[in-house]
Amino acid sequence: MTAAQIQEAMCPCPANEQERLQEVLHYRFADGGSEKALDEICGLAHSLFDVPLSFVTLVDANEEVILASCGAGDRPIPRGDAISSWAVLSDDVLVVEDALQDARFHGNEWVQRRHLRFYAGAPLIVRPGVALGTLCLIDTRPRHFSASERERLAMLAALAMNELSRRRTIIDLRRQKRLLAQATRLTKVGSWKLDVRNDSLTWSEEMYRIFELDRRVNPTREFFKQTLSSASDTDAQQAVTALVQAGKRFDREVEITTAKGHRRWIRCLAEAEWSEGRVAHVIGSVQDVTEQHQHNAEIERLAFRDGLTGLPNRALFHERLSGAIAHARQTRTSVGLIMLDLDHFKTVNDTLGHDAGDLLLCLIAERLQRVFGENNTVARLGGDEFAIIMPDIKTAADIHKAVERVMELLRHPVEHDGRNFSITASAGAAMCPLHHENPTDLLKNADIALFRAKLTGRNRLIGFQPWMRLAVERKAELVQDVRSSLTENHFRLFYQPTVSLAAPCQVTGLEALMRWEHPSKGLLTPAAFMAAFEDTECGHHLGELAFDSAILQMRRWLDEGVEFGRVAINLSSAQFRTGNLTEVILDKLAAAGVPPSRLVLEVTENTYMGWSAEMVGDALRALHIAGIQIALDDFGTGYASLTHLNQFPIDRLKIDKSFLRGTRDGAIVHAIVTLGARLGMKVVAEGVEDAEQLAILREMKCDEAQGYYFARPMPADDVPTFLAEFQTRSDGDILTVPTNPQALAQVEETQQPTCA
Question: Taking every annotated instance into account, which residue ranges of this chain make up the domain EAL (predicted)?
Fold first, then answer.
């Protein structure tokens, strides 16, 4: 029955009913039944007040529970019929001298059917304002109840309450004892007590389990002392002696061998009890912390060890590097730091699978440890990146000798799944204090040297030189300058036409090329700020600017009726890293109302094969399906294989301009043109500067070309005029297009794409 239902039954509830019911729960004892002491109190009330019925009750939410009685049974009474529900409203004794004359109770079932006429109930008070139930008296005839009788009834109720509290305390103690026993088993904690005066030792059941002792064996002081301190651990021996003789607190973790020969770790806490100025007893606990030690070791392994190779990870590497540098300062010695990356490791993963890659990493870790030994730290920082700390080295020659041995070991082939393969590595080195005494800066310098090793051809060790850091700092300054110019809108797009070589020649499209209108250096091509594209933030913002500007310009030309064909925009790795490139491009085209077929996306081989090739491929496939053409830019200068031409959605191959400059490159150009034709791809030659190059390309049946022979990159406003004049001048013969002979002599600095 809810509180509202009780109210409907004309049974009142105290204002603090929820608090009162919470207390009642603590006195609804699980073992139930009547208590002899409470029955005796009921009997005393029966005799003292000369009534036929007396009860000790608890008033619960739904009923009045009879805990003890004299003259009646112990069946619960529905709370709506319980007059005691009124008695718990206050701390005073409730007296109903004649229930038939009381408007509150004359319709009560006990009054009508059981002929109850008199009721006196003294609340069982836990604390002021909170009553559990009553000690109540019932008679079948009306009677007067004096003030002194009320006082005596209240005193008996207090006795009943004391008995309930005593009973609750006993039950709570039993529960606590059971919980403590369970807790000691679960936490593997045992307790013990040593009587120093007679050397008697007593301990709990859990101690037998911890030490795996037969319960028939009586523990001795000597056994316990030997357990806590091995013969070789003089500190522990002294601590035990200080505990027993001087009462000094003992707190130590030790490894023990149990009676069954198992190794365990225990933690022992002990303190002394003093009597008459000396130690009388030593009381302590022993906890089996073996699992905790194992967990800590596993946590340390996970926190400080690489999961694949077992080498120290980045966190432990930094800790050891700081320690090695601190030691070097004290001893005035040098520390060598080597950063090592595997060359083209991603190709191993892509061609042979990740199993082969993992096997290779483990073998590299093993070979590095073989070369550098235990006195040096070999760490795996992530991916294919390793680091080696060499303390107490004398000269840089020590580093070079060790790395040469590593390079030699790497040349030994690795066998996986019936196939042999080998790999090379690039390394950068720095020394402390020669190159820096701060761990962070020393690591940065070694990284800079590693970058130079990769930049200069890989498969080599480069030692750090101060000028290398200057180059990095200049790059940082450039990136900051680019960020400022992005904010101030100093970048704009120029457009260079792409021309079909088959008659009748036509402008088939335009390539969007970024230009930087530098406040002090004038108009700059991307060659001057190429490093900014390598910065994720700058590369992303430059790419966004190129897209927004080109799409807006296409919309204008469409509105003006300018037939520009397609516009090609270069994509950088930074743009793919956003993870939502496909949605962004299609949303921009849709918002501007530009058909996807008007757009060509140019991607270099290194972008295809670089960061997350799978993500790049997925994004380009989705864009290709939407109707956007995909061009592989600077073909032949990267490291994509012919296999990748089938794996990725490619519509156009762009021959890098470097292949048009040498006479011996003609065969390469012809091979690329033939390959494109066989694969159904358009082939575009970049950097065409003279009629001789153009004639050779036409003879090879190259599809399209672009370069200064046709036009320099131009502002968007010049494009409509150029397109109109081109059609008029060409008259079907592409060899008559140029009208400015100086164009071939005054070659602008190296062309660069919008985003490299």
Answer: 475-727
Nearest-angstrom CA–CA distance, 533 and 369: 38
Q: Which CATH superfamily is domain 310-464 in?
A: Reverse transcriptase/Diguanylate cyclase domain (3.30.70.270)
Pairing of strands 189-195, 200-203: antiparallel
273, containing H or E segment: strand 263-275
Name residue 509's amino acid: G
> Residue 503 contacts by C-beta under 8 Å, 6 or more apart in sequence?
732, 733, 734
What pLDDT does residue 141 have?
Answer: 94
Helix, strand and coil in the chain, % to nearest 5: 45, 25, 30
Closest CA to 708 of 743, 657, 749: 743
What is the rounded distance in angstroms from the CA atom of residue 691 to the CA atom of residue 710? 10
Question: Is the Cα torsion angle 433, 436, 438, 444 positive or negative in sign?
Answer: negative
**3-state DSSP of 162-194:** HHHHHHHHHHHHHHHHHHHHHHHHHHCEEEEEE
Question: Tens digit of pLDDT for each residue in 553-588?
Answer: 999 999 999 999 999 999 887 788 777 889 999 999
Helices (H), 332-465: 345-352, 354-372, 396-410, 439-455
Nearest Cα to Cα of residue 565 among 633, 611, 508, 622:
508
Task: Identify the three-state secondary structure at position 472.
Answer: helix
Q: CB of 512 within 8 A of CB of 495?
A: yes
Place of tokens 């985003």: 755
CB-CB contact of 625 with 596 (8 Å): no
What pLDDT was estimated at residue 662? 62
CATH tag, 477-745: 3.20.20.450
Other residues' Cβ atoms within 10 Å of the Cβ of residue 354: 10
Count each helix (H run) and each strand (E run) in the chain, helices first: 27, 28
CA distance 363 to 311: 12
Residues of the chain with pLDDT under 50: 1, 3-9, 30, 32-34, 231, 663, 732, 735, 737-756
Report CA 240 to chain centroid distance, whole Å. Answer: 45
Q: What is the CATH number of domain 188-293?
A: 3.30.450.20
d(CA 498, CA 393): 59
The DSSP bridge partners found for residue 522 are 518
In this prediction, residue 653 carries a pLDDT of 92
Fold of 3-175: Beta-Lactamase (3.30.450)
Strand order, beta sheet including 425-432: 377-382, 385-393, 334-342, 425-432, 461-463
| CA 82 – CA 65 distance, rounded (Å) | 10
3-175 and 188-293 agree in CATH topology: yes
65 SS3 class = strand
Note the pTM of the prediction, 2 decimals: 0.50
Q: What is the dihedral of CA 72, 75, 80, 84, to 10 degrees?
A: 50
* Predicted local confidence at residue 642, as pLDDT: 64
Domain ranges for the chain, please list them: 3-175, 188-293, 310-464, 477-745
